Amino acid sequence: GMVERFQTLHGDAVGAVYATEQLCGPFDVIVEDFAYDRHGFAGTSVDFWSKLRERLCAPGGVVVINTLYRSHGEMDALLNDLHEAGWRDIRQRVDRGLQAHG
User: Which of 43, 35, 32 is nearest to 10 (CA)?
Assistant: First the structure.
């Protein structure tokens, strides 16, 4: 029978998106870990999200974005960028995580 393989690649999405030639992909699932608190950092823009979709995401693929924002406005800006970049069926899941004091 057919053997399916699961492969992972750890790398810099900004570098891969703006590389002069496609280095890898396309991928069925992309996990973006942007834990920052200001919109516009690390290449995030309509251009970045559009190129990520076009160059690295397989047809029907999914991007999962981990963010850390201080205000809803920053999340709204990201959602707007994703819409303008052609992503569809965008769903927001908020997990505040755990915090413990000793």
Answer: 32
Q: Which residue has the tokens 């960028």?
A: 81
Phi, psi for 76 (deg, rounded to 5): -60, -40
3-state secondary structure of 33: strand
CA–CA distance, 17 with 23 (Å, rounded to integer) = 9
- Tell me the whole-structure pTM to 2 decimals: 0.77
Q: Which two tokens stand for residue 2?
A: 């057919």
- Rounded to whole angstroms, the Cα distance separating 28 from 59 reads 8
Which run of H or of E encompasses 62? strand 57-67
Cis peptide before 59 (omega within 30 of 0): no
Q: Do 73 and 38 contact (CB within 8 A), yes or no?
A: no
Residues 21-53 have pLDDT tens digits of 777 778 888 888 875 544 455 557 899 899 999
d(CA 74, CA 69): 6
Whole-number pLDDT of residue 85: 94
